[in-house]
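JOB MANIFEST
job_type = single_chain_structure
chain_count = 1
residues = 370
[input]
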Amino acid sequence: MIPLFKVRCPKKGDRLGKKINDVFKSGMITEGKYSDEFEQMLSDYIGNPNSVLVNSCTSALTLAYRLAGVTQGSEIIVTPLTCMATNEPAFNMGAKLVFADIDPLTGNIDPESVRKKITNKTKAISAVHWAGQPFDISEINSIAKEHGIKVIEDAAHALGASYKGSPIGSPHSSDYTCFSFQAIKHLTTGDGGLLACKTKEDSDRAKKLRWFGLDRKYKGNKWNQDITECGYKFHMNNIIAAIGIQQMKYIDSTVKTHRRNGLYYDKFIDNPRVQKLKRPASSKSSYWIYSLLVDDKESFREHLNSNDIACDEVHVRNDKYSVFSDFKEEELPGVDEFEKRMLNIPVGWWVKKRAAKRIVDVINKYENNK
Protein backbone atom coordinates (compact mmCIF):
# COMPACT_ATOMS: atom_id res chain seq x y z
CA MET A 1 0.00 0.00 0.00
CA ILE A 2 1.38 3.43 -0.95
CA PRO A 3 0.58 5.44 2.20
CA LEU A 4 -1.18 8.79 2.13
CA PHE A 5 1.16 10.16 4.82
CA LYS A 6 4.55 9.26 6.21
CA VAL A 7 6.58 10.92 8.98
CA ARG A 8 9.85 12.37 7.71
CA CYS A 9 12.57 11.40 10.20
CA PRO A 10 16.22 12.50 10.25
CA LYS A 11 18.58 10.04 8.58
CA LYS A 12 20.69 7.58 10.55
CA GLY A 13 23.89 9.56 10.08
CA ASP A 14 22.44 12.83 11.33
CA ARG A 15 23.39 12.17 14.97
CA LEU A 16 20.10 13.55 16.18
CA GLY A 17 20.49 11.56 19.39
CA LYS A 18 23.76 13.34 20.13
CA LYS A 19 22.19 16.75 19.57
CA ILE A 20 19.32 15.95 21.93
CA ASN A 21 21.80 14.54 24.45
CA ASP A 22 23.74 17.80 24.22
CA VAL A 23 20.55 19.66 25.11
CA PHE A 24 20.08 17.55 28.24
CA LYS A 25 23.75 17.87 29.17
CA SER A 26 23.48 21.64 28.98
CA GLY A 27 20.72 21.61 31.58
CA MET A 28 18.81 24.12 29.42
CA ILE A 29 15.93 22.10 28.02
CA THR A 30 13.33 24.84 27.78
CA GLU A 31 13.37 27.77 25.33
CA GLY A 32 16.94 28.94 24.61
CA LYS A 33 19.90 28.38 22.30
CA TYR A 34 18.34 25.72 20.08
CA SER A 35 14.89 27.29 19.82
CA ASP A 36 16.54 30.61 18.93
CA GLU A 37 18.58 28.89 16.21
CA PHE A 38 15.56 27.05 14.80
CA GLU A 39 13.47 30.24 14.83
CA GLN A 40 16.19 32.05 12.88
CA MET A 41 16.44 29.22 10.32
CA LEU A 42 12.70 29.36 9.72
CA SER A 43 12.78 33.16 9.49
CA ASP A 44 15.46 32.91 6.82
CA TYR A 45 13.54 30.20 4.96
CA ILE A 46 10.35 32.25 4.58
CA GLY A 47 12.19 35.58 4.37
CA ASN A 48 10.49 37.14 7.38
CA PRO A 49 12.43 38.40 10.44
CA ASN A 50 9.16 38.90 12.34
CA SER A 51 8.74 35.20 13.08
CA VAL A 52 7.70 33.71 16.40
CA LEU A 53 8.39 30.04 17.19
CA VAL A 54 5.69 28.27 19.21
CA ASN A 55 4.71 24.78 20.33
CA SER A 56 1.91 24.21 17.78
CA CYS A 57 0.08 25.80 14.88
CA THR A 58 -2.95 26.02 17.18
CA SER A 59 -0.88 28.23 19.48
CA ALA A 60 0.22 30.33 16.49
CA LEU A 61 -3.42 30.80 15.48
CA THR A 62 -4.40 31.71 19.04
CA LEU A 63 -1.72 34.41 19.09
CA ALA A 64 -2.77 35.66 15.64
CA TYR A 65 -6.41 36.00 16.71
CA ARG A 66 -5.32 37.78 19.89
CA LEU A 67 -3.14 40.21 17.94
CA ALA A 68 -5.98 40.78 15.46
CA GLY A 69 -8.21 41.96 18.31
CA VAL A 70 -10.57 38.99 18.43
CA THR A 71 -12.44 39.00 21.76
CA GLN A 72 -15.76 37.94 23.26
CA GLY A 73 -18.54 38.89 20.83
CA SER A 74 -16.23 39.55 17.87
CA GLU A 75 -17.05 38.03 14.50
CA ILE A 76 -14.38 36.22 12.52
CA ILE A 77 -14.90 34.98 8.97
CA VAL A 78 -13.55 31.46 8.58
CA THR A 79 -13.71 28.45 6.32
CA PRO A 80 -15.47 25.30 7.53
CA LEU A 81 -13.22 23.09 5.36
CA THR A 82 -10.18 22.71 7.59
CA CYS A 83 -8.81 21.05 10.69
CA MET A 84 -10.72 22.07 13.81
CA ALA A 85 -7.47 23.71 15.00
CA THR A 86 -8.21 26.64 12.68
CA ASN A 87 -11.52 27.51 14.28
CA GLU A 88 -11.46 26.30 17.88
CA PRO A 89 -9.01 28.99 19.14
CA ALA A 90 -11.37 31.77 17.98
CA PHE A 91 -14.35 29.89 19.45
CA ASN A 92 -12.52 29.59 22.78
CA MET A 93 -12.05 33.37 22.78
CA GLY A 94 -15.81 33.79 22.64
CA ALA A 95 -15.92 34.87 19.01
CA LYS A 96 -18.76 34.19 16.62
CA LEU A 97 -17.58 32.02 13.72
CA VAL A 98 -18.99 33.16 10.39
CA PHE A 99 -18.50 30.39 7.86
CA ALA A 100 -17.74 31.56 4.33
CA ASP A 101 -18.12 29.42 1.23
CA ILE A 102 -15.24 28.02 -0.82
CA ASP A 103 -14.42 27.65 -4.49
CA PRO A 104 -15.43 24.04 -5.27
CA LEU A 105 -12.59 23.80 -7.81
CA THR A 106 -9.79 24.78 -5.40
CA GLY A 107 -11.01 24.13 -1.85
CA ASN A 108 -9.97 27.70 -0.97
CA ILE A 109 -12.11 30.44 0.53
CA ASP A 110 -14.33 32.37 -1.91
CA PRO A 111 -13.62 36.14 -1.82
CA GLU A 112 -17.17 37.05 -2.87
CA SER A 113 -18.63 34.97 -0.07
CA VAL A 114 -16.24 36.68 2.37
CA ARG A 115 -17.32 40.11 1.15
CA LYS A 116 -20.99 39.30 1.82
CA LYS A 117 -20.31 38.09 5.36
CA ILE A 118 -18.58 41.22 6.72
CA THR A 119 -20.41 43.25 9.38
CA ASN A 120 -19.38 46.01 11.75
CA LYS A 121 -18.47 43.29 14.28
CA THR A 122 -15.99 41.53 11.96
CA LYS A 123 -12.45 41.61 13.35
CA ALA A 124 -10.62 39.27 11.01
CA ILE A 125 -10.68 36.85 8.09
CA SER A 126 -9.01 33.47 8.65
CA ALA A 127 -8.40 31.38 5.54
CA VAL A 128 -6.59 28.13 4.76
CA HIS A 129 -4.23 27.41 1.87
CA TRP A 130 -5.97 24.15 1.02
CA ALA A 131 -3.53 21.29 0.26
CA GLY A 132 -0.70 23.84 0.00
CA GLN A 133 -2.30 25.82 -2.86
CA PRO A 134 -2.40 29.52 -1.83
CA PHE A 135 -5.77 31.22 -1.81
CA ASP A 136 -6.17 34.61 -3.53
CA ILE A 137 -4.17 36.58 -0.95
CA SER A 138 -4.36 39.89 -2.84
CA GLU A 139 -8.13 39.81 -3.17
CA ILE A 140 -8.75 38.77 0.44
CA ASN A 141 -6.40 41.47 1.72
CA SER A 142 -8.04 44.04 -0.53
CA ILE A 143 -11.44 43.22 0.99
CA ALA A 144 -9.95 43.36 4.50
CA LYS A 145 -8.32 46.73 3.86
CA GLU A 146 -11.65 48.20 2.72
CA HIS A 147 -13.13 47.34 6.11
CA GLY A 148 -10.09 47.84 8.36
CA ILE A 149 -9.86 44.22 9.46
CA LYS A 150 -6.97 41.74 9.72
CA VAL A 151 -6.16 38.65 7.65
CA ILE A 152 -4.80 35.41 9.11
CA GLU A 153 -3.37 32.81 6.75
CA ASP A 154 -3.56 29.25 8.04
CA ALA A 155 -0.53 27.89 6.21
CA ALA A 156 -0.42 24.53 7.99
CA HIS A 157 -0.40 22.88 4.53
CA ALA A 158 1.72 25.48 2.79
CA LEU A 159 5.31 25.61 4.05
CA GLY A 160 7.36 26.13 0.88
CA ALA A 161 4.48 27.48 -1.20
CA SER A 162 4.63 30.92 -2.81
CA TYR A 163 2.29 33.64 -4.08
CA LYS A 164 3.24 36.10 -6.81
CA GLY A 165 6.89 35.16 -6.38
CA SER A 166 7.04 35.61 -2.58
CA PRO A 167 7.17 32.77 -0.04
CA ILE A 168 4.03 32.22 1.98
CA GLY A 169 4.73 33.87 5.34
CA SER A 170 6.94 36.63 3.95
CA PRO A 171 6.22 40.27 4.90
CA HIS A 172 4.46 40.50 1.51
CA SER A 173 1.81 38.09 2.82
CA SER A 174 -1.04 38.94 5.20
CA ASP A 175 -0.98 40.37 8.73
CA TYR A 176 -0.35 36.93 10.21
CA THR A 177 0.67 33.55 8.79
CA CYS A 178 0.59 30.35 10.84
CA PHE A 179 2.62 27.22 10.09
CA SER A 180 2.46 23.69 11.49
CA PHE A 181 5.26 21.22 12.27
CA GLN A 182 2.87 18.49 13.37
CA ALA A 183 3.77 14.85 12.67
CA ILE A 184 2.78 14.57 8.99
CA LYS A 185 3.70 18.03 7.71
CA HIS A 186 6.53 18.83 5.26
CA LEU A 187 8.75 19.52 8.28
CA THR A 188 7.93 17.86 11.59
CA THR A 189 9.18 18.31 15.12
CA GLY A 190 6.50 15.94 16.44
CA ASP A 191 4.48 19.07 17.05
CA GLY A 192 5.29 22.75 16.75
CA GLY A 193 4.38 25.91 14.92
CA LEU A 194 5.44 29.33 13.73
CA LEU A 195 3.66 32.68 13.64
CA ALA A 196 4.95 35.04 10.96
CA CYS A 197 3.87 38.66 11.42
CA LYS A 198 3.88 41.54 8.97
CA THR A 199 5.26 43.98 11.58
CA LYS A 200 8.00 43.84 14.19
CA GLU A 201 5.63 45.43 16.68
CA ASP A 202 3.30 42.43 16.43
CA SER A 203 6.13 39.88 16.60
CA ASP A 204 7.61 41.56 19.68
CA ARG A 205 4.22 41.45 21.38
CA ALA A 206 3.69 37.82 20.34
CA LYS A 207 7.07 36.82 21.80
CA LYS A 208 5.95 38.16 25.15
CA LEU A 209 2.51 36.58 24.92
CA ARG A 210 4.00 33.17 24.14
CA TRP A 211 5.58 33.11 27.61
CA PHE A 212 3.15 34.51 30.20
CA GLY A 213 3.56 38.10 28.97
CA LEU A 214 7.25 38.20 29.94
CA ASP A 215 10.31 38.94 27.81
CA ARG A 216 12.69 35.98 28.09
CA LYS A 217 15.50 38.13 26.66
CA TYR A 218 15.18 40.59 29.54
CA LYS A 219 18.55 41.50 31.02
CA GLY A 220 18.57 40.75 34.71
CA ASN A 221 16.00 38.94 36.84
CA LYS A 222 13.14 38.03 34.45
CA TRP A 223 10.67 37.95 37.30
CA ASN A 224 11.22 41.62 38.09
CA GLN A 225 9.42 42.60 34.88
CA ASP A 226 5.91 43.95 34.97
CA ILE A 227 3.30 41.84 33.17
CA THR A 228 1.09 44.31 31.31
CA GLU A 229 -1.09 41.66 29.60
CA CYS A 230 -1.55 38.01 30.42
CA GLY A 231 -0.02 35.54 28.02
CA TYR A 232 0.29 31.79 27.53
CA LYS A 233 2.82 28.98 27.76
CA PHE A 234 3.25 28.58 24.01
CA HIS A 235 7.05 28.58 23.59
CA MET A 236 8.92 25.70 21.93
CA ASN A 237 11.53 23.95 24.06
CA ASN A 238 15.13 23.21 23.08
CA ILE A 239 14.55 19.45 22.77
CA ILE A 240 11.93 19.85 20.06
CA ALA A 241 13.89 22.68 18.43
CA ALA A 242 16.95 20.43 18.16
CA ILE A 243 14.84 18.03 16.09
CA GLY A 244 13.68 20.94 13.95
CA ILE A 245 17.25 22.08 13.26
CA GLN A 246 18.08 18.62 11.91
CA GLN A 247 14.86 18.50 9.88
CA MET A 248 15.70 21.80 8.18
CA LYS A 249 18.42 19.92 6.27
CA TYR A 250 15.65 18.26 4.25
CA ILE A 251 13.04 20.95 3.78
CA ASP A 252 14.19 22.01 0.31
CA SER A 253 14.36 18.45 -1.01
CA THR A 254 11.09 17.52 0.70
CA VAL A 255 9.12 20.37 -0.86
CA LYS A 256 10.86 19.78 -4.20
CA THR A 257 9.74 16.13 -4.24
CA HIS A 258 6.16 16.95 -3.21
CA ARG A 259 6.06 19.54 -6.00
CA ARG A 260 7.63 17.17 -8.55
CA ASN A 261 4.96 14.55 -7.87
CA GLY A 262 2.16 17.13 -7.84
CA LEU A 263 3.21 18.61 -11.16
CA TYR A 264 3.48 15.10 -12.60
CA TYR A 265 -0.11 14.39 -11.56
CA ASP A 266 -1.22 17.76 -12.93
CA LYS A 267 0.22 16.84 -16.31
CA PHE A 268 -0.54 13.15 -16.67
CA ILE A 269 -3.78 12.36 -14.82
CA ASP A 270 -6.24 12.23 -17.68
CA ASN A 271 -9.58 10.63 -16.97
CA PRO A 272 -12.94 12.28 -17.72
CA ARG A 273 -14.31 10.76 -14.49
CA VAL A 274 -11.60 12.42 -12.38
CA GLN A 275 -11.28 16.21 -12.06
CA LYS A 276 -8.08 17.97 -10.98
CA LEU A 277 -8.11 21.16 -8.93
CA LYS A 278 -7.79 24.54 -10.58
CA ARG A 279 -4.28 25.98 -10.07
CA PRO A 280 -3.91 29.76 -10.59
CA ALA A 281 -0.71 30.82 -12.35
CA SER A 282 -0.07 33.46 -9.67
CA SER A 283 0.96 30.86 -7.07
CA LYS A 284 3.04 27.72 -6.53
CA SER A 285 1.60 24.97 -4.38
CA SER A 286 3.64 23.05 -1.84
CA TYR A 287 1.45 20.01 -2.66
CA TRP A 288 1.18 18.87 0.96
CA ILE A 289 -1.71 16.71 -0.20
CA TYR A 290 -3.15 16.17 -3.67
CA SER A 291 -6.92 16.52 -3.92
CA LEU A 292 -9.02 15.07 -6.72
CA LEU A 293 -12.74 15.47 -7.40
CA VAL A 294 -14.94 12.53 -8.40
CA ASP A 295 -18.68 12.01 -8.56
CA ASP A 296 -18.65 8.69 -6.70
CA LYS A 297 -16.07 8.85 -3.94
CA GLU A 298 -16.71 5.40 -2.57
CA SER A 299 -16.28 3.76 -5.96
CA PHE A 300 -13.06 5.71 -6.52
CA ARG A 301 -11.80 4.89 -3.00
CA GLU A 302 -12.47 1.20 -3.59
CA HIS A 303 -10.61 1.35 -6.91
CA LEU A 304 -7.54 2.97 -5.34
CA ASN A 305 -7.49 0.73 -2.25
CA SER A 306 -7.83 -2.42 -4.36
CA ASN A 307 -4.69 -1.27 -6.18
CA ASP A 308 -2.79 -0.65 -2.91
CA ILE A 309 -3.07 3.14 -2.99
CA ALA A 310 -4.23 4.88 0.19
CA CYS A 311 -6.65 7.79 0.03
CA ASP A 312 -8.70 9.89 2.44
CA GLU A 313 -10.53 13.18 2.89
CA VAL A 314 -7.97 14.26 5.57
CA HIS A 315 -10.22 17.09 6.89
CA VAL A 316 -14.00 17.28 7.19
CA ARG A 317 -16.15 20.38 7.33
CA ASN A 318 -16.14 21.87 10.82
CA ASP A 319 -19.78 22.94 10.72
CA LYS A 320 -20.80 19.30 11.10
CA TYR A 321 -19.58 19.32 14.73
CA SER A 322 -22.23 20.04 17.34
CA VAL A 323 -19.90 22.44 19.16
CA PHE A 324 -20.24 24.79 16.16
CA SER A 325 -23.98 24.22 15.64
CA ASP A 326 -24.87 27.82 16.51
CA PHE A 327 -22.83 29.04 13.53
CA LYS A 328 -24.10 26.69 10.84
CA GLU A 329 -24.95 28.48 7.59
CA GLU A 330 -27.96 27.45 5.53
CA GLU A 331 -26.25 27.64 2.15
CA LEU A 332 -22.62 26.87 1.40
CA PRO A 333 -22.92 25.26 -2.04
CA GLY A 334 -19.17 25.31 -2.73
CA VAL A 335 -18.42 23.48 0.52
CA ASP A 336 -21.24 21.00 -0.18
CA GLU A 337 -19.91 20.17 -3.64
CA PHE A 338 -16.24 19.98 -2.63
CA GLU A 339 -16.86 17.78 0.39
CA LYS A 340 -19.05 15.44 -1.64
CA ARG A 341 -16.44 14.95 -4.38
CA MET A 342 -12.98 15.35 -2.78
CA LEU A 343 -10.44 12.62 -2.02
CA ASN A 344 -6.67 12.93 -1.54
CA ILE A 345 -3.97 10.66 -2.97
CA PRO A 346 -0.31 10.16 -1.94
CA VAL A 347 1.98 12.91 -3.24
CA GLY A 348 4.76 13.21 -0.63
CA TRP A 349 8.50 12.71 -0.51
CA TRP A 350 8.07 8.93 -0.05
CA VAL A 351 6.37 8.60 -3.47
CA LYS A 352 9.15 7.68 -5.87
CA LYS A 353 8.87 8.34 -9.60
CA ARG A 354 7.86 4.75 -10.33
CA ALA A 355 5.15 4.87 -7.67
CA ALA A 356 3.85 8.20 -9.00
CA LYS A 357 3.58 6.64 -12.47
CA ARG A 358 1.69 3.66 -11.05
CA ILE A 359 -0.73 5.99 -9.24
CA VAL A 360 -1.39 7.88 -12.48
CA ASP A 361 -1.89 4.64 -14.42
CA VAL A 362 -4.37 3.33 -11.84
CA ILE A 363 -6.34 6.59 -11.81
CA ASN A 364 -6.46 6.79 -15.60
CA LYS A 365 -7.94 3.28 -15.71
CA TYR A 366 -10.71 4.11 -13.26
CA GLU A 367 -14.22 3.38 -14.50
CA ASN A 368 -17.29 3.87 -12.38
CA ASN A 369 -19.45 0.92 -13.32
CA LYS A 370 -22.04 1.44 -10.59
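[summary]
The first strand starts at residue 51 and ends at 54.
Residues 64 and 333 are 29 Å apart (CA to CA).
exit_status = 0
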